[in-house]
Design brief:
Blueprint (H helix, E strand, L loop, with lengths): L1 H6 L7 E5 L3 H10 L2 E5 L6 H15 L6 E4 L9 H12 L5 E6 L10 E4 L3 H4 L9 H6 L5 E5 L9 H9 L3
Parallel strand pairs: 1-2, 4-6
Antiparallel strand pairs: 3-5, 4-5
């Protein structure tokens, strides 16, 4: 899906943050042609991976990148239409932080999350395993929830993966 979004001009580049010892993941990232960001301190939690990804994006695109979409590796079924809707909502000024709210899980904020560049400095203040949840405590603007159809299930176990593979696309 990320490659499709790049091909359609929705995303300019993709960076993937992975833990240092995961050579299989490295090979996948390279096979897809994405930029690899190595997290040598994954024990510092999800916030550290998020910081590394944003720092890398700032270094490689100091003025070009106006926003970032944060995807989770354990949610492989993100639909291109959701990415398009998030980017369109951001382009029309909906807000600096936009999250999908999937029809199947209305009570749970979804992913990917779009972050306007104006929010990126806040990420430097995050710590631990909280990820973007910590941003909500720091920014003054509300998170815009964008209603989208379908769902985006987590894949946390082999059983989750098997169940996901059995679902229609």
């Amino acid at each position: 899906m990320v490659q499709d979004a790049q091909a359609r001009g929705i995303l300019a580049q993709a960076e993937v943050v992975i833990a240092e010892p995961d050579e299989q993941a490295w090979r996948l990232v390279e096979a897809f042609g994405f930029r690899l960001v190595v997290n040598q301190a994954s024990h510092l939690g999800l916030s550290h991976s998020l910081r590394l990804g944003i720092e890398s994006l700032e270094e490689r695109s100091p003025t070009d990148a106006a926003a970032a979409l944060i995807f989770l590796a354990d949610q492989p079924r993100v639909q291109l239409a959701v990415v398009e809707a998030l980017v369109e909502a951001w382009k029309t000024g909906s807000g600096p932080m936009i999250r999908p709210r999937y029809q199947a899980y209305r009570e749970i904020p979804g992913h990917p999350v779009l972050l306007d560049r104006s929010i990126w400095p806040v990420i430097q203040h995050l710590s631990g395993d909280r990820g973007l949840a910590g941003v909500l405590e720091i920014i003054s603007q509300p998170v815009v929830m964008l209603d989208v159809p379908g769902d985006n299930p987590d894949v946390d176990t082999p059983a989750d993966l098997q169940a996901l593979e059995e679902l229609p696309r």
